[in-house]
Predict the structure.
Amino acid sequence: MSSPTRWPAEAIWEAVVPDLPGFTVEILPQIDSTNTELMRRARAGRMEPVLLVAEQQTAGRGRLGRQWFSGQEASAGAPASLTFSLGLPLSPQDWSGLSLAVGLSIVQSLHPELRLKWPNDVWLHDRKLAGILIETASLGDLRYAVVGVGINIRERGATGLATPPAWLGEVLPGVDAPQALLRIAAPLVQALKAFEAYGFAPFQARFNERDALAGLAVTLSDGVSGTALGVDGVGALRVQTEQGVKKITSSEVSVRPLSPPPYEHL
Ligand code: BTN
């Protein structure tokens, strides 16, 4: 049997609680999905700030109704991927760009080589390393945000994928899921608080510095193609098309680089 993973719950709690009174950290060996669990709690009226970490998810969810597979979690040692959701009451004036701000915070916490693929995938050298799923629930005037993050930590199988996923150990040899979580958690809460106060605008320039699509020929799922020009002050992707600059805001529009390498969702 593998030894239990040691998570830095107390260190995270100490770093976060000054910004988020009432914050707690919960580590579970297994659950269907950390996002599903926090959304269930929110719908039942439980909207307290919490970081919920699962060593294994049995029904992880991705964007656009996709499944999220985390690889061989049951293997020896710390989990092969880091899966967590941060739930907190949030009341920004404008929600546009939230997932971009979250992605930016994560790459800044982890490594200078990581890039962001609009709207919120994390890439390492043109392969997907992490994904973000944000959901919200409302109770009266209160809105609760559930920020779900899945990061490949160790090499995992690529069954059915043309492009194998990237993993964090490629740039941080020996890193494990608890160490990655410790780097990410407190800056992520600070980023969410900054977003709540000031919106996406203060994140725009730093996002564009990490933009994996910048200058690439892209094609959109609505058939339009052009050149990606970075994001504007509300996080919309600007694409130079034959008809002029088009601003993409809908998360339902997927963007594919035309030039190599081919992009594929996990
Ligand atoms: C995507 O790339 O489509 C988003 C993937 C988000 C996966 C994370 S893992 C933790 C949290 N719980 C889930 O069920 N999904 C998110």
